[in-house]
Design a protein that fits this description.
Blueprint lengths: L5 H15 L7 H4 L7 H12 L3 E3 L6 E3 L8 E8 L6 H4 L2 E3 L1 H5 L5 H4 L12 E7 L13 E6 L5 E9 L2 E9 L4 E7 L4 E8 L3
Parallel strand pairs: 4-6
Antiparallel strand pairs: 1-3, 2-3, 3-5, 5-6, 7-8, 8-9, 9-10
Length: 200
């Protein structure tokens, strides 16, 4: 009588389950936070977290990434603002001006009085929500919120900067004069850094 070796039986026992295994599709919970919000979600986010003084800018895609490096997804949204300082206390957000801070004049209360050099950019802002552990940027009470004012941009996209040799997500802004800059979290605040003309 022919007998099979024990090694053959062990290999057969290991291989058979693999042959019949099926790939399980990722459930909605696995992909929910990674999805880019649609127009309705952006409008609700702005209304709930920043108030009625803001409207989403058409033609700009929300940027979802971990901007503050805590492992939780955040979101950055291009918006038009009537008066960013008006609802800051009520909605618990911080108005900042990294662009003029880079040049030594970072007081948003003072610099917003001068208005934008280009009338098309008047009132533009970038709204950033740092997500909380219980829901990311969609949480009812986010970790923190910022309104970036006076940043001249005609296009926004995701980028990266190196901080302590570690890549960190950043918001890249294409400015009207073709200079590309980045806004990034340095561990304590958002900073502006120009990258050069005609940079990709």
């Amino acid at each position: 009588m022919h007998t099979r070796s024990p090694l053959f039986l062990v290999i057969l026992a290991l291989v058979c389950p693999l042959l019949f295994a099926q790939k399980v599709p990722a459930g909605p919970a696995a992909t929910a936070l990674a999805a880019t919000p649609d127009a309705a979600a952006v409008k609700k986010l702005i209304q709930d977290q920043f108030g009625s003084g803001y409207k989403p800018l058409p033609g700009y895609t929300p940027l979802v990434a971990d901007f503050d490096g805590d492992g939780i997804e955040d979101v950055a949204v291009a918006a038009k603002a009537v008066n960013p300082l008006l609802n800051a206390v009520e909605y618990h957000y911080t108005v900042i001006d990294p662009y003029h801070s880079y040049f030594g004049y970072g007081n948003p209360k003072l610099m917003m009085q001068f208005g934008a050099d280009d009338p098309r950019l008047e009132g533009q802002a970038v709204l950033i929500v740092h997500g909380a552990a219980d829901g990311g940027w969609r949480a009812a009470q986010p970790k923190s919120k910022f309104v970036i004012v006076n940043l001249p941009y005609i296009r926004l996209s995701l980028s990266q900067v190196l901080r302590h040799k570690k890549p960190l997500a950043a918001v890249a802004a294409e400015e009207p004069d073709k200079v590309t800059s980045v806004i990034y979290w340095d561990g304590k605040k958002y900073k502006y850094e120009p990258m050069g003309a005609d940079a990709d």
